[in-house]
Amino acid sequence: xxxxxxxxxxxxxxxxxxxxxxxxxxxxxxxxxxxxxxxxxxxxxxxxxxxxxxxxxxxxxxxxxxxxxxxxxxxxxxxxxxxxxxxxxxxxxxxxxxxxxxxxxxxxxxxxxxxxxxxxxxxxxxxxxxxxxxxxxxxxxxxxxxxxxxxxxxxxxxxxxxxxxxxxxxxxxxxxxxxxxxxxxxxxxxxxxxxxxxxxxxxxxxxxxxxxxxxxxxxxxxxxxxxxxxxxxxxxxxxxxxxxxxxxxxxxxxxxxxxxxxxxxxxxxxxxxxxxxxxxxxxxxxxxxxxxxxxxxxxxxxxxxx
Length: 306
Prior knowledge:
Layout: H1 2-19, H2 21-32, E1 33-34, E2 41-48, H3 56-74, E3 79-81, E4 87-91, H4 95-147, H5 153-204, E5 212-217, E6 220-225, H6 231-245, H7 270-280, E7 283-284, H8 285-300
């Protein structure tokens, strides 16, 4: 009797297993394999330097927009705000930020100076051209009358008046040229100062992040942002550092979010998507937990007994 019961149970189990094969496999797969992207990385706001004139809500909104660049590609929410989140994000004002501000200010002054100088120089060149034409016409008229043995008294006086007028115009043009030269010297000085500041800026960044940085230190995660030149650049910078926080490295495509230089790219390139797919690929839960345990043991300096 017992054998018959066991046989019936075995047959029913085989039939049930066959009927529910797909959901059982799916369930087993969900237990044994998981994607690191299944659970959102949480972030919190650390400090916002008041020099940026950025509100907390606006900063959070910018971070959410940056995070959505990655999330929209996977169909999963990869990042979420949490006052106690794991990743601390700061908007920092330091030497890099100061130099960047100076560069922007100088660049504005140079452009303003240039916009003032350009029409003045164009007007001077036009008047100088007209002056040269008047000189040539006067000399031509004088030469004409010389070939005639001299100009009549009335014509002679007219020629003298033209000559005197051109002498006054010459003085006016020389004064204007001198003024323009001084303005041009100031303009060139500002351009030189701008170049010097840019060189200082580049030197300051030689061993530091260009726009922001992601730091992992003993389980403590930080994202520091140093620039807010435009909304697009801020969004790019935040997306770049958030990419690092989920394990995505740099790539050499200058259209990429993960290109290691400042841009205003706000869409994932093919290289970004490939790296994201690799990071979000399902992995064995058992193997990943063994790796985490080994890393923890290594950090604690412990040794497993054989």
